[in-house]
Each structure stands twice: as structure tokens, then as C-alpha cells.
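#lab-general

N.A. 3:47 PM
ok so I finally got the sequence cleaned up, no stray characters, all 552 residues accounted for. can someone with queue access submit it? mine expired

B.Y. 3:52 PM
send it over

N.A. 3:53 PM
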Amino acid sequence: MNKMFFVCCSLLLTITYVSSQMILMSPSFEKFEKIPLKFGCDVQERDPFRPNPPLFWKRAPVKAQSFILIMDDITENEKVHWIAIDIPKETSIIDEDSSETSMPYGTKELANAFGVEGYSGPCPYNTTHEYRFRLFAMPTAQTKVVSKPIASDIVKQIEQDALYVSVLMSSFSLGAPKNLSKEIIHNATIPYAPESIVSIRQKEVEGCSWIIFSYDMDRLQIISIGSIIARNKPYTEFRFNTIMRGVADVRLSANCLAPLSEPVFSNFRIYVTYGTNATNITLYGDTDIELPDSSFRFIKPSEVLKPQRKHVNMNNNDLKPDCSSNNGVDECVTNFEQALVEENQQNKKKDETKLCDIEKRYSHSGRFKNGEVCSLRVRMRDVNCDNFQFPTNSSCFGSNYNSSNPNNLEYSPSIYWENVPSGVESFVLLIEDRGKISSQTKNGRILWVVSDISSNFQNIDFGASRGNKMPPLSIEYPNSQGKTGYSSPCTESDSEPQMIAIHLYAMKHSRTLFHSPLNKPLDSSFIISQLSNDLICSAVLEIPLNFQQSKL
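B.Y. 4:20 PM
back already:
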């Protein structure tokens, strides 16, 4: 009888222990089932910026003070897609699309294998991968974890202290991208003449922007991008000049913020043949876009390149900035609003100079969508009318530059702008090297791209690139050399100058998102084509870079 009692009690205790184990689940998929497509990358764009799946757990250990969540790709050497630590003990749910924006208070998301401090969706290429979600119950409210790209290297840091771990297994499969660019939908034949203009128009759709791409931009030169009313509908219009004879294939693609929206392409083939008369031709790509029945989502911080600098510290108790290091470089701004007011007052005094004749010749402003001329102008401080050329100290001929030194300093030029129209929320600055002045084709090599410059700022100081003197919250993108920030221009010839173009775009939103071209170097036309929908107006300053004068 005693033996039977012992067996019954042992069985009872075993059942009680099993029933109290922590379980990790998802309302979107069962264990060992496939993760829904909306949580993985896009089949065409292959971008991993997607909402995270919802998760919940129950029966956590009583002694648990926090949780650690790790998602990894078992098929691809345990590559980490998501890691979150210090999840509060009171938490039992992580909502859908909460990564980076609405995680439980106190939770820290560490960098995954892709360098993103948040969730990166699964993205296997034309195959199926196995994915693992693991939830660790920890005995302390905070755990020191060093982020690693391989999950096992993270687990080694916490496995000795973890009270319990629960696992949710899943899989995800994705096909290869479809080739959607072979079929030519629109054809046009025009006689070649220097004044020939080709206009391509595509319907505007709220939440979407049309992006132009072509490998044949040596035959077509973009004149302008804007919105017009035609056929009683709003259209995005791309206008080109014909540069040389030949065949140009042009593709317009719709970039929509709606999740799960299918990629839409509209292709054109333009034949530029012999002829003498100038011709204007307009092509309409009346491609309809069907957006899915789902709400738009906010763009997450990781979907744009983060600025490579310290965050701005704001302290309303201090009226003046006072946080310089020993080397005299400002490390922070203690009163953001006061600093803006003081800086703008100083800049206005510096900038109250009239344009000379040569600067008027090379300075151009764009137009508003209603056709009126925009008075916005972009200028440089380190130039004068007697010697109107790109500043030597911002080129590779400056004393700061040594071609044999890979770590040479490259000081960005001092740029400011004036006559800002109303309604501007931010600016995008783009500096390109157009190549030799006599050349009929422009290489469009990007030297510097900066977006999200606050409308409170109207200047960027000399040497600000890659440093703390950049406008707060502005973003520097990789240029054509692959460097994030500014790269100095160099002339290709000892005798013939090159043309440097400084573009300024006044945007109606505070944030601007760029895409990079696939398998092709980044050029200015690709960036400019993505600004049309949110652009209020623009300005450009063309300034020569002369080798002979730069050596003086």
C-alpha cells in the first residue's frame, strides 16, 4: 500500500510539473507551421523590413524577473533575426508590428545579424528555411548580453542563468523574384534633334510614388520631375531631352507604403532615329494599382539609414550650449531650440549678400506644381565672384587630402540656402560630379547625399560631414564611392574643368526614404527620380572645378 501511494504521488507530482512548463505560442501560426507571408520579406524587393509576428506565453516560472527573446534561422547557421532582452516579468504578449515602435516598456532590442536593432523578416531565396523562436525566463530584471550574429554565441552568455526556455518552431518559404521587365508595353519613335523632348506620365496613387530606372540614361537626360493635371487626373511626369540616337528602355515602378502590395511596372521603349525637326512626344502609362485591404503602417527607424553620430541631448534648464570637449568640438547641444534661434540669426547676417552675374548664370530654381517659379536658392560661402569655382579645401587638391593615404580627411563644403517657400518640412541635399564640362553625357556620380534636414536649418557648416555639427536628425547616405558622408571631387584632366552640381530639394514631409539600385552603381538620376511625389520645389547651383586653379 505504501508503495502504491508512493507511485501515485510521484505520478501526480510529475503531471503537475509538466503542466506548469512555460509555453511560447503565436496566434498567427501553429508550432511547426509556416510563418505567414506578411511577416517575411518581399519576393521582388527582397527587403526584410516587415512587421513582426505576434507572440504570447503562459505559465512562466514564479522566480522569473525578465525574459529574453531570440529568433534565428536554423537552416542558415543560426543567423539571428531578432533579439530582445529585459522584457518585463509582467509581460506575456508581444503584439504584431511592435518591434522598434511599441515593445513592452523597458525592453531593449539588440542588433541582429543584419545590423538592425529590431525584427528582420525571413527571406530565403527560392527555398524553405526553418526558424526558431526561443523565450528565456531570467532570474534578474536586467541581463548583460553582447549582441552576436549567431544565436548559439548569444545563448552561451545566458544559458547558465536561465530558469527555463520555451521553443516555437516554424518555417518560411519564398520563391525567386519574377522577371517583370522584359515585356515592352509602350513604344515611341522620334527624330533626333537637340530640342526633342520626351514626356512620360503615370497616374498618381495616394501612398505610392513612381520611380524611374534605365540602363540607357546616356541617351536620355532628365529635365524635370513633377506632378501635373492631365485628362482630368493627377499624373507624375518625367521629362527628358534626347542626347543621342539609339534605343532607350525605361521602366517606371510603383513604390507603395501599403504592406503586401504587389509590384507594378510600366515599361517604355523609345527609339531615337535620324531627323532634323524638333519633336515633343508624350507617353501615357495608365497602369492601375490595386492596393490590398489593409491599413498603412509607419516606417520604422531601421528602414532608413541612421546617422552615424551621437544623439542630441536636450536640456531646457540651460539657455546656452556649453558642452565642448577639450579639442573644442561640440559634442552635444544642451538647448536645442535656443541653439536653432541663435544659429539662424547668425546665418541671416552672413547670407544677406546679393547674387553676382556669374552666380546668377549658374544658379537655377525649379517650379511649383502649379507652374509658378520657385525662388529657393542654394549657395556656397567659400566662393566669390572673382574666382567662381568649387572650393579647393573641399576638393582632393586641398591640403587636407593625400591620395596615397586611405584615411585622408575630406571636408564637406559650407552650404546655405535662402528664400524658403512655405510648407517645407525638410530638405534633401545632393552634390554630384557631372564630369567634364564639354562632355554631352553626365556621369551623375554622387559625392554627398543628406536627407531629413530640418526646415529650422538653412545651412550646413564647413567640414560637418560625419560629425556632430550636422543638423540634428539629418541622415547621410552612402555615395557613389560607397562611403557614408562626403567624398571630395577630383578633376579627370589637367586642363579641362569639371562641373559640380549642388541640388537642394524642399520636401513636404519631415522624412524621406530612398531605395538603392540593384546590381548597379548609385547615380544622381536614380535618387532624383524618387523625390517627385513629396517635392515642393528645388534649386541647383552649378560650379566648375578647375585643376589648374586648384593647384594655386
